[in-house]
Every structure is written in structure tokens, then in C-alpha cells.
Recover the amino acids of this structure.
């Protein structure tokens, strides 16, 4: 079975500082990993994904994520946070060797303070 | 504009009164899915469809029905809603890649349902 954990319910960071939102996953086969962002009263929007290749993936709005196979992690990062980055962030995983459905983490609320 | 639409956006109803939430996508995606979002639980999949007339249960299907008569539409039906179905519901669609299968999902704006 596949699962996703986001160990922090809330992350607070000052504007201009680097940010990290953590995600760990568990799959039996090969993972297909995603990050989505949800702004208030909106649906989820795609940020970035990883399936293979370079472990550092670049996505929308200056975000990037680092895949670490040994630690089964896929942490979301940004070098310099903006107040407008404040939102709810979801990590999702699909086991490429089992089924077609994704499992989502519980979400991490990011607050960027001015 | 490529999009997933849901209607209604907000709905307050009473226990036992049948309701339908519509979902439509204009991207010709094969895969469509319904999720519910509850605080601290993230998104949990209710039902999904790999193509027309092909539907299957997700993780929390009890109390819900779906149909996929046309590729673009995937309505969610609550035959007898109960208060524990009060939630935020999202419809999503995805193309089916020949290489990886289901791929990036595109989400609707959400339907906030309250069952009294």
C-alpha cells in the first residue's frame, strides 16, 4: 500500500528566508511524486512532479523539490519565501507498479510572515 | 480555457435529501476522480473513472454513487446525505499517459457541502 506523511501541520517562515515543507512517502514499487498548492477558496494547483532523473526538480513560482530515495523523502523548498506563498501544500504519491490512483498527505499550512 | 468545473460551489441541505454535484472537464481526459477534503485528513478518494462506463471505488465510497456516461462529465450523487458527509469536495481529471498512466491532475474549484 502507498502512503504519504507530512510531519508538520504548520510551517512559519519570515519573508525572504528559505522555506522547506517536508514530505515522506511509502510505496512498494517506484514512486511518482507530486506537490500541489491550495490557495483559500480555490482548488489544488500543480507545482511540480518527480518520476525519474535529476533528484532536484524545479517547478512553478520558484519552488523546487529534492527527491531522496534512501530517506524516502520529497521535501519542497524555496530559496526566498514570499508572503504570497502562504497557502496549504499537499504532497501526493502514486506507486507506478500498483494501480492508477494517487494518495495525498494531510497537508501543511505555510505562513510567510512579512 | 482548459478547466474543470463543479456545480454548485456551495450547498446546504438536510439529511436524506438526494443531491447531485456535477463535474465537467474540457480537456478530453480519460481519468476523473472525486475527493473529499477534511481538516487533518488531506484528500481522500471517493470514486474514480478510467474512462466512459468504467468506474471504481476509492478509499471512502460509502454513501456515494457516480456515473460516467460521457467522457467530459462525472457527477457525484449522494442518495441519502448524512451529516458526516459535510465536507469540501473536489473533482479532478487527468490524462492517461502511455508511459506512466495517470499523470498530473487538474482540480475543480471545490464544492462545500453542509448536511444538517
Amino acid at each position: 500500500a502507498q502512503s504519504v506523511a507530512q510531519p508538520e501541520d504548520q510551517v512559519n517562515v519570515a519573508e525572504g528566508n528559505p522555506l522547506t515543507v517536508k514530505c515522506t512517502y511509502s510505496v512498494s514499487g517506484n514512486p511518482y511524486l507530486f506537490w500541489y498548492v491550495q490557495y483559500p477558496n480555490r482548488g489544488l494547483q500543480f507545482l511540480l512532479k518527480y518520476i525519474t532523473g535529476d533528484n532536484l526538480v524545479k517547478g512553478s513560482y520558484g519552488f523546487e523539490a529534492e527527491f531522496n530515495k534512501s530517506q524516502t523523502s520529497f521535501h519542497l523548498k524555496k530559496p526566498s519565501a514570499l508572503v504570497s506563498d502562504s497557502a496549504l501544500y499537499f504532497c501526493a504519491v502514486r506507486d507506478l507498479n500498483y494501480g492508477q490512483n494517487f494518495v495525498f498527505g494531510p497537508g501543511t499550512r505555510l505562513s510567510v510572515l512579512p | 480555457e482548459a478547466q474543470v468545473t463543479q456545480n454548485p460551489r456551495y450547498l446546504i441541505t438536510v439529511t436524506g435529501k438526494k443531491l447531485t454535484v456535477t463535474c465537467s472537464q474540457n480537456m478530453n481526459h480519460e481519468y476523473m476522480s472525486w475527493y473529499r477534503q477534511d481538516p487533518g485528513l488531506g484528500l481522500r478518494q471517493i470514486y474514480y473513472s478510467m474512462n466512459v462506463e468504467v468506474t471504481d471505488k476509492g478509499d471512502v465510497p460509502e454513501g456515494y454513487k457516480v456515473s460516467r456516461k460521457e467522457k467530459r462529465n462525472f457527477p457525484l450523487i449522494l442518495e441519502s446525505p448524512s451529516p458526516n458527509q459535510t465536507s469540501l469536495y473536489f473533482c479532478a481529471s487527468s490524462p492517461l499517459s502511455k508511459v506512466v498512466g495517470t499523470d498530473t491532475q487538474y482540480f475543480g474549484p471545490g464544492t462545500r457541502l453542509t448536511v444538517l
Observations:
- Chain B touches chain A through 26 residues (CB under 8 Å).
- The CA atoms of residues 18 and 79 of chain B lie 5 Å apart.
- DSSP finds no helices and 13 strands in chain B.
